[in-house]
């Protein structure tokens, strides 16, 4: 079982983000959240975790006492074995030495939301983090010797040059990150700066194509459309979820997948605290299989019957082959690489994954 905890609090709202979170929360909200989480964790027996992921929002917005309580609850209820991947997302301006010590005792993977190493481009994105806070956070993470650490970057920011983005990649790699996630700027509808933050899509495609070569000197390799890792440092939580692994989500807006049904908790702290029932996503079995298939095609290892055998209700190689061939006919044969026992997308196929997914789904 893979566990996801959504901690829905942020210091302020970034200009491009419309994902559910509560900006400038008061500590009373933190306590209400933790009390409810404790009740939920007590409510049912939970199988031992394969992975644990604390995302947000900004989990590290909690003060040390509340972070400690959160970690204690998860340890007591899930009893993760040594070596279980435990990830936590962090924003630089919320980290200090005391918190890093607590986090390092609990988690073996940290994901730092940098987005850009340029203060000017972070301002464009509407992210308030000083250069000093960013450097301090990186120093703390390096000193703490996390075996796995990710840096999130955004590219195609208006006003940023290619050289700026390539510098960001090199800075992240030189800092010692083992994993780099790169997302093209995609302002979500309803985001504060949505109108102002429209990326140049052609430039975004050019930058995406250049990433593997830019990261090659440090031996990073692309393993999913937006994710790059040193060999053996892929995010296990994400890989498990992409492959149709079971997911149990806690907190507002957290999604779960029980092997047949997917459901999402209410995207509102107030409703979640009041016990609103989760929203069921009733996709018929065949569509669910196509969805898992399409998501796996985002990865460079693609789809194999071996992975499929763990997905409940999965069909066989012939059925997937037929689907891939008909999608190739409708899009482009150059998008697919089909070899015995494996279906992957070519580099141009990955770039047009959205189009392929529309056909598959
Ligand atoms: S991008 Fe992350 S830190 Fe910024 S508002 Fe959204 S959830 Fe919060």
From TrEMBL:
Domain Radical SAM core residues, every copy: 1-234
Signal peptide annotation: none
GO terms for MF: 4 iron, 4 sulfur cluster binding; coproporphyrinogen oxidase activity; metal ion binding
Matches recorded under InterPro entries: Aldolase_TIM, Coproporphyrinogen-III_oxidase, Elp3/MiaA/NifB-like_rSAM, HemW-like, rSAM, rSAM_sf
Pfam families: Radical_SAM
Listed transmembrane segments: none
An annotated GO cellular component: cytoplasm
Cofactor(s) needed: [4Fe-4S] cluster
Keywords of the record: Chaperone, Heme, Iron, Iron-sulfur, Metal-binding, S-adenosyl-L-methionine
GO BP annotations, alphabetical order: porphyrin-containing compound biosynthetic process
Family label: Belongs to the anaerobic coproporphyrinogen-III oxidase family. HemW subfamily.
Name of this protein: Heme chaperone HemW
Organism ancestry: Bacteria, Pseudomonadati, Lentisphaerota, Lentisphaeria, Victivallales
